[in-house]
Amino acid sequence: MRANALSTAVPALLLVVALLLTWTWLHWDRFSAVAQRQWILQAVQELSQMLPPSPALERNTDKSGSYTWWSRPDYLIFSNGWAAYKIHTVHDGEKVGDIAVLRASDGALYYSNEHYCVGITEWMEPHPSLEAQSPAPSDLRDFLAHYGERQDWKSFAPDNRKWCVVNFSHPNGHQGRKPISVWISRGEGTNRATLLDRRYKVSGSYVSWSTSWPSNDCVVLDIYDHGPGIRPIISYPGTLLSNHLMSLSFHLNNRTGLYEEE
Description:
By secondary structure, the protein is of the alpha+beta class. It has four helices and 13 strands. It has a six-stranded antiparallel sheet, with helices on one face.
């Protein structure tokens, strides 16, 4: 009797496991690192051609919706300079996912993987639209240090011609082994090249990372897990609420022109 019950239960259990795995892989496969990378390349190209905001846009003091007079569609207007941005959210297409690119008037480039569902002001703190008199940041540095601190903008290389993008395609919030990919690329006009494309696996729940460029030829990644129920937006990398998983360092090989892991 027990043997018959066991022989019936095992195939049923295997079927359930197979269905769960199939659903999971189908869900993960909606995201495409290649599609996101292509979007970044296109965004960088478009932002490089954007002109300064028009005087009419700078004079616009309408604070309706999610914008203030210094945060407008496509532009951030500072007291000294400006920045243009492009945003894609998972609502626009799951293959590309959440990604934004920002270019300052001096050419500095940044990208963010936050979910800007209601526009560029999301995750700003203090939120500009909640202030009666919202002062404009003096420049990009001021914006990143204050209003944009929680938006987790990651810089391109100092020369703004190379960037290191981490693609994390598996659902966050569930503990387990998760693959991530690290992509270093160079882009200038139509001259584009992949300088590194590596894949790793990390164990965690809410995974995030920080990027630093000691020089144009070296980039360092620190990858963190924030634990069950703790979103990276709440717990900054390196705080007591996060767990440092690994550090990765890549250096340009001048002989091959490619980056290598140190």
